[in-house]
What does this fold into?
Amino acid sequence: MATVDALAARGAVGTPGRRRGRTDWLPHVVIWVGMLVTAFPLYLIFVASTLTPQEIAQAPMPLVPGDRLVENYSKALVTGATGRYLSPPVGRMMLNSLLMALVITFGKIVVSVLSAYAVVFFAFRLRMVFFWMIFITLMLPVEVRILPTYKVVSDLGLINSFTGLTLPLMASATATLLFRQFFLTIPDELVEAAKMDGAGPMRFFRDVVLPLSRTNIAALFVILFIYGWNQYLWPLLITTSNSMDTIVIGIKKMIGTGDALTDWHTVMATTMLAILPPVVVVVLMQRAFIRGLVETEK
Amino acid sequence: MRRKVIFNNKVLPYVLVAPQLAITLVFFFWPAGQAVYMSVLQQDAFGESVRFAGLANFAYVLADPDYVKALWRTAYFSVAVTALSLVPALVLAVMADRVIRGGTVYKTIVIVPYAIAPAVAGVLWLFLFNPSVGVIAYGLRAAGVPWNPTLEGAHAMILVIIAASWKHVSYAFLFFLAGLQAIPRSLLEAAAIDGASEARRFWAIVFPLLSPTTFFLLVVGVVYAFFDTFGLIHAVTAGGPAKATEILVYKVYYDGVHALDLGGSSAQSVILMAIVIALTAIQFRYIERKVHY
It folds into this structure.
């Protein structure tokens, strides 16, 4: 048909949206705007973290980095904020955050991979009851049961303890669901072969199931690490001593009410340091992360 | 669903589920039960006298004008955040789906905010909008806007909405992009050959096929705005000025932890729980049915 050729000549046919040979500028413009809105605030934070307090206070502050990068960051890392809130050094807070994030991540993965394995590969009484109990926790985020959870932790004497900070966050419905979904796809033949070779369930778990779950574990690692590093409400409730402050809580304490007394250059250096680890994890493990995110939630 | 071939151990499966179950019982079910229990009791702040109050706490909470205001505030906050994150995310995803070169770089930059804690994203925007040092605040003042989020409730609300939406765009973007990439190219090619314009192809094919994703993201967006923004509100405005940014989850926290109103706070917790359960139920119902045309 002539019309088709005419259309093709005008570039309307071809792989829609993926045509070649013609510069399609609109998507690029939109994406550049998107990237700018995403990245420019981060750039400004970085700039502020390299300036002197005087440079920040003169409105508007310079839009190019200053020369205080090393001073500001080393002061934050080693001394922390001064003034109203005598914070621990930011290095210490980062260590607190890192430990919390890693323990939560590791704990969640272990706890959920084991329970998913039990639910999928065994028949036992109350199996479905247990499964639903785990599933229902999706609907009970900390935010909706603040006081009673605090009370349980305090009755157990876990306030201001690392156990109190991490253990209650280790149950994970999402991770369990993801592993369960994946385990259901493991072919029966593999299980039969293992049984025939005389491998017990734990041997099968270690030698077959875990290695097969590698990509799932990698994806969960990214999601859970970010979850752990970014915790806010829980550390706010459970820790009262400054030495246990995580970096996210530390920043909040540093800004106080956000008035003129705020040590903005230190706060901005700390903000950069709070952003860096999770961003590095996401960027480096991007592929696993995106796959895992889209799959876990669906 | 269950597997055909399984192991026959009697004790092992219980041992395997035990850790998860123990944590779930002690730190989820027990406190949730306590919340329900405490919500029907009335006690003074020192816990010395306790009496059964029936639904009095709920009646009290729901009749409290502050609570009703917080409820409406939460409603428009979550509508605003969901809209301001989903619409740009969809536009960006449609555009990103169309470019091949540089696609990875775009994606990498756009997903960065996902990794940033809500509270930290809040501090970032707080700094930019700070009346005395903020770059954006300076621009606004230069443009004649008397900007001051520490005094003006509406300004504070705008600030937290921007921060919350900015952070959430990346999440929605990833899901929209995955949804777009799952649409068969042949459908779009057929439509193009039939002479459907670009806009027509989007509204007649792409958008309907994206509806399950969109629906999922609407629910997740509301849940995010309701609960995950606690850190943002707490760090940036502490619910102020004059409660202008006090959303429900912040009010539960404040009334329980600072005002020590145990019965009232528990009743609010129970109401919030009901909201989460309803949202999750809606989500699963629709995912099962797959919103499709």
The two ends of chain B are 27 Å apart (CA to CA). Chain B touches chain A through 110 residues (CB under 8 Å). The CA atoms of residues 40 and 55 of chain B lie 6 Å apart.
